[in-house]
Amino acid sequence: MKEFSDQWRDLGQFIRDQRNVARLSVRRLSNMAGISNPYLSQIERGLRRPSAEILQQIAKALRISAETLYVRAGILDAREVGADLTEAILAEPSLTDDQKQTLLRIFLSFRRENEAGLPDA
Predict the structure, then answer these.
(1) 25-32 contact pairs (CB < 8 A, 24+)
(2) Residue 45 has pLDDT above 70, yes or no
(3) Is the pTM value of this prediction over 0.85?
(4) Cβ–Cβ contacts within 10 Å for residue 3, how many?
(5) Cα separation of 66 and 101, whole Å?
(6) What is the mean pLDDT of residues 13-41?
């Protein structure tokens, strides 16, 4: 059970850190996200397990991707996010084929660069 509570504490700390970076009070972020001040405070302290919908509202208010919070909450696997991004780029109707390919090349080069910098297990 400790692992479960650590996950929510870590998620809450991440949300708190993002709120502080954005220079928002708990009250202001809760208003922007459309949730109660005490509920947000409980999420930040790891006492509550927020739903995907609540995480989406918090992410929108913080101007970060909901996927970032979903991965931290264990709703999404980190690898799924990369695949989703590739699919989203390819499906985007407002981009030309050349623009899509350029974005994909940049994205994949960043991933390779970051993976190359990881120490061997």
Answers:
(1) 29/58, 29/61, 29/62, 32/61
(2) yes
(3) no
(4) 6
(5) 25
(6) 95
